Amino acid sequence: MQLRAEQLGAHLSAPPGGSLPGCYLFSGDEPLLVNEAHDALRAAARKQGCDERESLIVERSFDWSALTASLGMPSLFSAGKFVVLRLPTGAPGEEGARTLRALAARPADGNVLLVLTPTLNRKTAESAWVGALQKGGVWVEFRSPSLAELPRWIARRLKSAGLACEDEAAELLAARVEGNLLAAQQEIDKLALVYRAGTQLSVAQVQAAVADGARFDVFQLGDTALAGDVPRAIRMLNALREEGVAAPLVLWALVREVLVLVEAGMRAGRDLPLEQAIQATGAWKSRVSLYARALRGRKPSSLRRLLRMASEADQIVKGARRGEAWNALLELTLALGGEPLPAAELG
C-alpha cells in the first residue's frame, strides 16, 4: 500500500492484521521527515520484538546475497530483526531489483526491512521493484512543504508541541528558517521550552524567542526599510555591523526584498492590481500591505535603479567590485526605504 506521510503514525499504531508488514520503502530528500519516520518505525518494530537492528548501505560492490542471508538468518537475541537498507542513488540495479522483488513477496516472518532512498523520479517510481515493495508492504513518499505551505506546517508542529500561534507568527518563523525544516523544528522545540503549553504565540513572542542574539536582526532591517522608516533602518544597520553580523547575510535579506518589489512592480505594470501582483510573487498575505506601501509611487525607472544597486552591492560585498561593503549596504537600505539620501557614514 502507499501511504501519505501524515498517515504513517496511525498505521504504526494499529497496523492491518495486528503486525507490521515485512517491508517498507521511505523515499524523500528531507532529512528531518525521513529520520522521524525511521525512528517511529524502529520503535514500532521494537514493540513487535525486533530488538536487533542491522544497517546496510548499497555501494558499487554491494553483495545483495548478504541482505537475503541476514533476513533469512534467525536472530539470536530477539524475535526478529529490523534491517535498514540505504539506497543512496535510488537505483538498485538489476540484481538488486530482483532481490527486492523477492523479499517483498516473501511471507511475513517477524522481520522488518526498511529501504531508504532519495526522492524517486517518475521512471523509478513506476519500476517493478518499487511496485513489489508497495504491493507487499508500505511505500511512503516524504515531500518538503513549499514556502507557501510552510507556515501551516509550522502551525501544526506547534500544535503538536502544545502551542498555538497567530498566522503572522507562523509566517515570521517560516521566513526565518527559509524552508529548512530541521531549523524550524529546532525553533519549535525552543518555543516549547520557553512557553507553557496552551500559549497562543504572538509575533512579538516568536521574535523574542528565536532572535539570533543580535539586538536588531536582518529580517527586521528589511521590514523597517520597506515601511519607510529610514532613520531607524540606518540605526539597525549600524547595530548589525557593530555586533559582527556578516555582511553577506545582511545583503541576502535586503536583496530578497528588492527582488519581490521588482517582480511585483513588473506584474503591476501589466495592468494587474497591485495587491494581486504582490501575491503572485509568493509573498505571504501578512506582508502584502508592507510591499504595497513600498511600491506606491515608485516608477519603473526607480525599480530598475533599485535592482542595479542590489547587483552592485552584491559584487562589492563578494569582492568582485571595488567599494566598501557596509556603505553599499547602507545605500541599498536607503533606496529600499524609498529615500535614496546622500551617502552617510556608518557608526
Question: Which key terms come to mind for this protein?
Answer:
347 residues, alpha/beta, Rossmann fold, Helicase, Ruva Protein, domain 3, Zinc Finger, Delta Prime, domain 3, 3 domains, 6-stranded parallel sheet, two-stranded parallel sheet, elongated, disordered C terminus
Structure characterization notes:
The protein folds into three domains: 2-142, P-loop containing nucleotide triphosphate hydrolases (Rossmann fold), CATH 3.40.50; 150-210, Orthogonal Bundle (Helicase, Ruva Protein, domain 3); 218-336, Zinc Finger, Delta Prime, domain 3 (Up-down Bundle). It is α/β, with parallel strands linked by helices and 347 residues long. The chain has 17 helices and eight strands. Strand 4 (81-86), helix 4 (93-105) and strand 5 (112-117) form a beta-alpha-beta unit. Helix 8 packs across helix 9, helix 12 (230-242) packs antiparallel against helix 17 (325-336) and helix 13 runs parallel beside helix 17. Mean pLDDT is 86; it is low at 341-347. It has helices spanning 8-13, 31-47, 64-72, 93-105, 122-125, 128-136, 150-160, 167-177, 181-194, 203-210, 218-226, 230-242, 247-268, 274-279, 285-295, 300-317, 325-336; strands spanning 2-3, 23-28, 52-57, 81-86, 112-117, 138-142, 164-165, 200-201. The strands form two sheets. The chain has a six-stranded parallel β-sheet with strand order 1-6-2-5-4-3, sandwiched between helices. It has a two-stranded parallel ribbon with strand order 7-8. The chain is elongated, with a radius of gyration of 26 Å.
